[in-house]
Amino acid sequence: MPGVLLFLPFLLIRFGLLAAKNRQALPRAAHFAPMQGWEKIAYAVYQLATLGIFLALCASRIQTGSTGTWYGSLAVYLLGLVLCAVSVLHFAAPDQDGLNTQGIYRLSRNPMYLGYFVCFLGMALLTRSWVLLALAAIILTATMWPVISKLWSAAPQGLDARFYNRVCLPLGAALLVLMALCPWLGWGGGMRNKKSFWIVLAAAHLSGAGIWLLGYRQSVALLAAAAVVGILVGVGVLLARRDVWRHPPSLGALGAHLGMALAALGIAFSGPYTQDSEMALRQGESGTVGAYTATLLELQEGSRPGYDFIAARLQVSKNGKTVGEVAPERRLYDKFGNMQFSEVDVIPGLGNEVYASLLGLDGQSRVVVKVSVEPLVNWLWIGGTLMCFLPLLGLRRGKGRADGQGSGNAAPDGDAPKDTDAPEDGQTA
Asked: What is the mean pLDDT of the chain?
């Protein structure tokens, strides 16, 4: 059975059961507090890992059997579903203040996420997917670290985004290298096309040297960027073949590779090369972050339905040329007492994106803002979108396959020579 079937009960519980119990709880369950800097990278890693789990399930099959290992894996999966269901039911019944303090939420503040990870672990065990298992184990360990740390510390300790960067980014860079090289390697050993292999390898090395000369010398980012160029060149080489266009599964696989490469490019540079600065400004004063200058134009105060706010309007320029304006806010919601929330504003771009958050006022009535410049971060979302939709191209049946001709491992034309780089079903991944 396809491994993706394991995802359906999870989705029915997470969305169907929650909507049936309390439709208003759906957006509340998806709400995250405003994020800044490295918090956004950690959030992106979390979302991409979840997407990676889904994609891994699409490419896996449930390994059935009657052994103790199989029954144990099934038990872990069912336990995860039960935890998800209980968490959803209790989440859908908050108290009058909109907080969850009853049922399982008396024991844990994040039981729903615990259910997710136990469920994902069961999926990994049932499909025997080691990549999926590694992703689930990393996220589960990081999320549960405050609880685990109580074994040796009186004060619980959490893991910040640097943990994900140290663990996931090197692993991701190594996987990118494999993605660049594996399409040219045969399952039985040897190379499918030496010329294309050396073209991809040369492109990766030359781009790596060029990026190094430009001053981007962080090792993981440099390796990832060079591998991404290799992947893009490899995709271009394969797309130049007519037989690839007649083979939908190959188009879907190449689309997944393309999306993953672009997303990885955003992750590789947006983290290590983010620049940020906290500025205490009066009206008309300016502060700098990297090559950018932020000037405070005005400070506004006011009220909107449900909350009070202060907003700082800043003009952002680079090398004397205006880039745009940002208006970050500090909000005080009626239902959350004295708890303040920061509303980040952004100047979007395909290169650098500029983020601004209002931290408050200092003792001298100056506006304290944090301005961050994050390179290529939008390519993370572009690549993730492509990775979700382009593989759907593989759902279209190719010519000559409608009558059941050919096997799942046959070349697109069914008679391609063995020593060429004709893509085989599943061999481009």
From this structure: 76
